[in-house]
Amino acid sequence: MIAFVRGEVAAVTLNSAVLEVGGVGLELMCTPGTLATLRVGRPATLPTSMVVREDSLTIFGFLDDDEKQIFEIAQTASGVGPKVAQAIVAVMSPDDVRRAIMTEDVKTLTRVPGIGQKGAQRIILELKDRIGPPTGGHHAAAAATQHAPWRDQVQQGLIGLGWSTKESERAVEAVAPDAGEMPDVGALLRAALRTLSKA
């Protein structure tokens, strides 16, 4: 298993980053919030989870170990594959996921693309004893993105998740007042997704 990857960021796309490790470029599938913290040419260390299928070998990269843990636990629920697990950590913070499962908050879980009412109930039922209580930690993304053009990153993240340019622009405007001095792109993206799921 590849537990983490440390190297220089060689490229960042809409849904992945390439880190150069010992002359080899490793592509890591990442959420928009994680990608927003990376800069091409700068070193980065990302906890990773490797998903092996018959026809593919995919490495997922995360902001921190907490996010990675939620991604891996989520997949132990029946019907949850890596794509849905990644959508969960893209839309919700690790503590939000724990809170939703502990309080049996089906509505919050169904905001994740790919999770319906039945799926949310199954996740709650199967993970309630395994997920643990919220840890109270919050992401270090804020510090890394203080000088980032967060609007573009949030908008690109929303478009990457399937929203139209117009819808994502509207959502970015809606969350703009919350950006503050040091925008936390992951949190803003989640807030933007919330405004879209209400609309």
Instruction: Report strand order across the widest sheet.
Output: 1-2-3-5-4
Head-to-tail CA distance between termini: 41 Å
The number of distinct β-strands equals 5
CATH topology of the largest domain: DNA polymerase, domain 1
The appropriate CATH architecture of the largest domain is Orthogonal Bundle
Helix tally equals 10
Helix proportion: 40-55%
Q: Tell me the count of domains.
A: 3
Amount of beta strand: 15-25%
Return Rg in Å: 16 Å
How does this model look, in words?
It is a single chain. This protein has 199 residues and is α+β, with helices and mostly antiparallel strands. It contains ten helices and five strands. It has three domains: 58 residues, Nucleic acid-binding proteins (OB fold (Dihydrolipoamide Acetyltransferase, E2P)); 63 residues, Orthogonal Bundle (DNA polymerase, domain 1); 52 residues, Orthogonal Bundle (Helicase, Ruva Protein, domain 3), CATH 1.10.8. Helix content is 44%, strand content 19%. Helix 2 packs across helix 3. The chain starts with a strand and ends with a helix.
Task: Write a brief caption for the model.
The chain is built from ten helices and five strands. The chain is α+β, with helices and mostly antiparallel strands and 199 residues long. Strands 1-2-3-5-4 form a five-stranded mixed barrel.
